[in-house]
Structures are given as C-alpha cells and as structure tokens.
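Researcher: Please generate the 3D structure of the following complex. Treat every line as part of one assembly.
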Amino acid sequence: MEGRSARRDLPRIVIVGGGFAGLAAARKLRDAEAEIVVVDRTNHHLFQPLLYQVATATLAPGDIASPIRKVLAQQKNATVVLADVEGVDPENRTLAVHLPSGKRHTVSFDSLVIATGARHSYFGHSEYSRYAPGLKALADATSIRARVLKAFELAETEPDEARRKLLLTFVLIGAGPTGVEMAGAIAELRRYTLRHEFRNIDPTLARILLVEASPRVLGSFHETLSQKALQRLQRLGVEVRVGNPVADVGPEHIVLSGETLGAHTIIWTAGVEPSPAAKWLNVEADRSGRVRVMPDCSVPGFPNIFVLGDTAYFETGTGPLPGVAQVALQQGRYAGKLIYSRLLNRPALGPFEYFDFGNMAVIGRNFAILERGGIRLSGYAAWLAWAFVHIAYLADYENRFRVLTQWAWTYFTKQGGSRLIVEPDV
Amino acid sequence: MEGRSARRDLPRIVIVGGGFAGLAAARKLRDAEAEIVVVDRTNHHLFQPLLYQVATATLAPGDIASPIRKVLAQQKNATVVLADVEGVDPENRTLAVHLPSGKRHTVSFDSLVIATGARHSYFGHSEYSRYAPGLKALADATSIRARVLKAFELAETEPDEARRKLLLTFVLIGAGPTGVEMAGAIAELRRYTLRHEFRNIDPTLARILLVEASPRVLGSFHETLSQKALQRLQRLGVEVRVGNPVADVGPEHIVLSGETLGAHTIIWTAGVEPSPAAKWLNVEADRSGRVRVMPDCSVPGFPNIFVLGDTAYFETGTGPLPGVAQVALQQGRYAGKLIYSRLLNRPALGPFEYFDFGNMAVIGRNFAILERGGIRLSGYAAWLAWAFVHIAYLADYENRFRVLTQWAWTYFTKQGGSRLIVEPDV
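Model: Done. Output below.
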C-alpha cells in the first residue's frame, strides 16, 4: 500500500465489507475527492438472497457473485484490498488487517464504514455446526449442494431399506425465509430435476422436514401469508413442524421435544450472529452482538465510524431494523451520502430513515408471498414480482444476464442448472 | 445394488469412467437388452478440452461439466454408480469398488470397458506437484484459477518491487496444447479482464513464460503451424523458451539449464500418465503405463475386457494413437457397437480404425491453428472452426447454451466470466 502514500493528502475512507451496504456506500462516494479503500476477505460481492439456489443446485456460484474489483473498476478513487480485519483503533483511526501474504498491515482512515454482515448462529451450540451446516458464504452453499446431491448417490447404492430412508431424509432447522425457500427448492429438485436419473431409488419419495420453534413459518410476515406459505409447502410435500424447538442435533439425527428423528442431511437456517465489530471497536452491543448505532448509523462517541447492515442494531420506534438486504443497501447509500456531504462541508444530513419496500419469500415454482404496507399477495403474481426484483438488484449486467438465462432454462426444462459435486479429495 | 439382483438374468456391461470414451460406449448400447453400469468417481462428465478456460476464469465449472446421471437419464438400461475402482479380477469377471459410504462392493460383469483417462505426470518428480499444480480435474482448474487471481491480489498490496515482479510472473511448463492455450488465456486475462481493476500495479505488465524441452511449441503440429503459433504467442507478450528442459522446480522458482527463474505461479502442463488400469488387470503396459490393446481395443487374453482412450496404447502402422478426445470418442463408439453386435450374435466387427478429423489449438482471441490431412490453417477462420467444433461436442444442450452465451458475452465485453476465489478456509 506504499504506492498510495503519495496521495495521502486526500482524506481516506475505509469501507470494510463488499456486501450490499459496503458497495452502496462506495458507489455514493464515486465523485468524492477522497481515497476509498474497500477491504473484504473474499474477492467477490455475493448476492445472498439467491444463495439458497446455489445450495439447491439451480444456480452456479458465479451467477450470483461478482468480483468486487470488477464492480468498482470504473470508480477510479476506489482501491480494493483482499484482507481480513483483525481490529480497529477508533481513537487513533487505524485498522489492523491481515493480508493473504501473511503480512499484517495498519491502515489509517479519516472515516470508517463497517459493513461486515453476519454468520449463522447456533445459539451457543457451536458443536451443531459439524452435523448441521449453515448457509452464509459461497463455500457453505457448494458444500451443502454436495451434501444434498451425495445423499441421493448414497441412497442409490444402499441395500438396507431403513438406512436408505434415513439417507433420503432432509431436515431444515428454522422456517425463516432461507429455511422455507430451501425446503421448496429441495422439494422441486427431487420432484423434477432428479426424477428420472436413479434406477434403485425413487427420488420423489425423499422426505423433507421443516422444523420451527415458533408457532408459525415465516414469522416476520402477516399471519394470513404464513398460512398460505404453509399450505404451499404442504402441497409440495414438505412436512412442517412448528412450535417444535430443537433440543439437540447429532450425527444423522435431531431431537425434538422427546422424539428423535433420523436424517442424513440436516441444514441450519435458524439464526444469525453479527460479525465481531463490537469487539473490534470495544463498544456497546445488543445481546446478539450487534453494535448499537446512532440515528445517523455512526457509533456513539465516534461520528466518523459507521456500522451498517446486519452488524448494526438500529433502533426505530417499533424495534430494531431487520437484517435484510434492503436495510443494508439503504444504510450504505445513506452513509456514503453523509460522508460525501461532510467532505464538501455541506449541511448535515437528517437521521437515517428506512423505507420499507416490503418483504418477499418464494416457495418453489410459480409461488411467492409478498407483503408491502397493507398489500398482501401470494401466488404467481408475487412470484413474478420476486423474480423481477431479484434480477434488478443483482450487482452487474453479467450476473443479471446469467441468472435470467439460467432461470428461463430451468423454468422451461425443469432442470436444475448446476449440480456438481466437486471435492478435491474424491 | 441389491435392487438390481432381480434383473441379473440380463448380461451386465460395466463401464468405468464417464469421460468421452465411457459415455460414447454407453450411448451405443442404448437399445441393448442388457444392464449397463457406468462407474465414475465424480458425478460429472467433464469436457476437458475447455478445462483451461475454467482455470483462466473465462468459463465457470458448471459450463463444461454435466452430471453423468443427467446425460444418461433417458437411457433406461443404464445405471450410474458413484464409486472408486479398487481392482479388477479379469478371470472371475468381477470389479471391486469403493462406495462414498465407505463400503466396499464387488460387481460382476459380462463385459467390462475401462476408460479411466489420465492424470498429469511429473516424470518421476512428484515433489514438483506442490509447487507446480497440473490441470486434469475440475478441482485442479478452480485451484489454479484461485492461484492466478490471488497472485494479482498479492502483488497489489506488495510494497517491495522485486517481490511484486515475482508475484506477477507466471510460468507454464510444457508447450503442448494445454500450455499454449493457457499462456494465451492468461495473456488476455491480464490484458483485458483485469486491466482497469488495480490501483497499485499494472496487470498488463505481468510476465508470462512458456517453457518447453523440445525444440518447438505444439510439436504434434506441422512446423509451419508451430511457427505461426509462436509468433502469435509473442505478439500477445508471452515469452517462449523452447529447447529448454526444466532441471528443477521449487517454491517460487524453476531451474532451466543453469539459470534460475523466480515465479510465484508455476503450472505444469508437460505430460500425462494413464490411470492404473494395467495394474488392476495385471497386464502388459507400455513405458508410461498404458495398457497395450488388440486391434479391437480388447485386452490380450480377455476378449470381453476393453481399454479405451488415454489409458490404452493402440498401435497403428505409424505409432500409437494420441491421447486426444477424438480417439477416446471413436473408441468408445466402436467398443459399444462391438459389444452390442455380440449381444445380438451378429458377425464380428472389423478392427478399430481411427478417423483423424484433424488437430486444433487456440491462442487467445480470434486465433487458432488447424491441421487436417494436408490442410493447414491459422488465424480467424481456424478460430471460428475451433469454437464451432467445441460447442458441437459438448455433452448436452444446456452446456452448449451456457458456453455459447458466455463466449459471446466475453467476446463482446472482453470480460472473463468466472473469477471467483472460493476457499473454505479464507
């Protein structure tokens, strides 16, 4: 980073995380006379709302990921650094990073944006992770994809009927959007894509269980939409068990209030925990670890440090903002604009206000639920709206083109597009 | 595999390997009243001639791989088994396999087709593999892709100029088709795709060295075409060193007749060795380990066991057949037809005859060389022919569609399509 020292007279804005919030902030600063440094530990921006489609073999990893460098290639004031963050010194305005070369490096900043997202959380039971992987990064998705496809492979050559049934049982723990969308996608994988490909098993007989601790699926939606989603899931042959907290997860089984259920494939979609930004900054956090931020998304006491998206706890009159892409995107844009105004010595911006575009979840082909203000929609029209919005929000034209063509292909052929099991050690 | 015992009155033809030869044999047997069992240790057929494009970030892994199950879904007499072969008992006509469940299993056969291909070979220096990976499977390609892209990432944050130069030096050992095609592809990656994305380095200055022991590149082509290819490589900025055997390969360096060259990325494209079929069968092999086969591709003494493609040594009047896709494909079709004729008690087929459709190699955009009989072509027309033939030979419509659209995209935008670094441990 020595090469940059010559330009050190420019203010430096460091953005940690190339997700929705980080990229939105960087883009809002495109005309700033400043040095924008985007730090991420992967080389790609990931469109997480479609990650479950990689895990269930519809989309390929590259369809929903864009190199961060490519997204920012034309933004000449932006530099991208592949590195892990190790800590922040908010007083001295420096960030400690760990480069892939193994070297450590300290980056000073004038403003800092932390938008490092969340990982899935096992609520203190990290031992579950071995048996029930979660879904947050691309590598999670390809590993779940291999697990799901391999379950059918193992069943095909399994002589014992009881074991074959266990191999063909898939459990999703947590009926939020990810759990529901994956259950629907696995139901269609077995029903259409894999249907004619096996000789000793009937993939359509695979059992899919969706387990939820709270009383209904998709609890963030209105009750009538939860009910519609439940009916649709049942129509696809998904067994739904609500009000059923998981007492234990082990190798090839879960325990539900006394009953033990055998399943070869268990996937954890039950909760998230934020990145450790509160620890880096040594500031106040909520119970799950999110940094409590001010109405302008800054950290109390540090007006030049912002925490956004899933890592932030942003209080509104009616509770904190949810950990969804729209919140991250809007906070990113807001923080970028705020920093830009300050650089130009323009009057201060008002507090961040979230505009709720609504909520959507998709359950298999041709069916989604949609809620926006008082509007509640379910079925084909909601599904079209879902597809349209997801295409529109993809990071670049190439991803849009790839996802659109792949969806069109899958829609008409009923064939999932990306069904590789790639394991270096096979 | 118990489920199959009821049909054990049908003759069973076991095909090991779902590559060009294995799939071609299976398809020729589509109308046979027989049980066809295709055994492979991966779940996909791989279109190897385009694998270098995955390694150099143009195509995504899924673009050139199809699930073997999908390819054979409509062929009701074919069963696909994901397993590793551990040995063959040719006298008792059984095959020992290792299932992914960890179980071992013995499969009996009436006819056996072994088409298990080749791996890259370090000519006895297996210690080189750590420093100079080779390219044969999808996992090799994604790992080389990560290595190449990461070299630019490391250089971007490297303060020391000498080390930066080393990080931006790429060496390809072996100037056969794979080495030449990769050198051209890396040259274009740095020249177009990565051009505007870095701030501290100029990717176009990356040094690409192609090293070859023999006196010319693409030695299997006519000398005039070798010369054309060499000129094109030089025009793309590739340094070519022919007549220069590699004396040693170490971490970040190679030794060439006394001179030591530093390079962070070294890729081995210098040779292949066949799968261990000769050991499984305990039969005569040539020096590299290929099974010497009869004029009908069968193993001497075992008329019902066939060895095809890269694993076979097939003598013609002018030396053995080369290890190329066309040989594998034609031998696969021949063996399938031969077995089918026998099942129908038709008169015996004549010996296998290879029809040489010619040879092609591509060097960057708009340039290929092509040789067929007395015809020698280089330039744009050869490149169009190359693209056409490669699209036509892809295993299924979906792959054709994906590769075609991706190539069109890349051609017009000059942007490589698949540039992910996915490492579970980052």
